[in-house]
Specification:
The chain has 12 helices and no strands. Helix 4 packs across helix 5 and helix 5 runs antiparallel to helix 9. The two termini are 28 Å apart.
Amino acid sequence: MGVDAAGAQLHAGGEGAPPRGRAEAVSQPSPARFKEVVRPHLPRLYGLARHLVGDDGEDAVQECLLKAYRSFGQLRDPDAVGGWLRQILLNGVRDRARHAARRADETPVDHVDESYSLYRKLAEEDPLPYSDSLHLDFLSCVSVPDVWAVLDRLPAHYRTPLVLVHMYQVPTREVAVALDVPQNTLLSHLHRGRKLFERELWDYAAEHDLLREPQEVLQ
């Protein structure tokens, strides 16, 4: 239980290098054509940026679009625009993530209780005593906005890979390349990030009075 289960609720090259594909470029880099091609991808791009860098999300997207426009004339495959824009965005926040990741390596291990288990915590605390399916009922108390709120409480070096892997379903190998960290380091951050997420999810649920019996059980 944790970010994997919560993320399921959503059902969901180098910097500026255009994806390869068709032999000819999509078009000349006119502002009107560029706007037409990227507009459908903006909501998801802004959402990703907001959850990666918080209040700096809008600036990150603007920087991403500027870099994308500069190489738009070389774009070969319009079907790959979404992934292309995402990669440029990730490249734009990569230095920040790398810096945070290096700081994380210097953080004492005891700051992250790697033995913590939300499953075990629920069993011990039994916050829903009338429930026959405690863990499922607990998850049913947590909404998608709650999940994002908990993720926003995590340090960036844990939040970024969790968001990409579990909420946007980006393969770990791609995330490691995008963040320019060894895959083993990324997997370590994912593991520790999940433990932090579980602990913060419990605390968040208690703080926001989410640990209540479903009405249909009480009636």
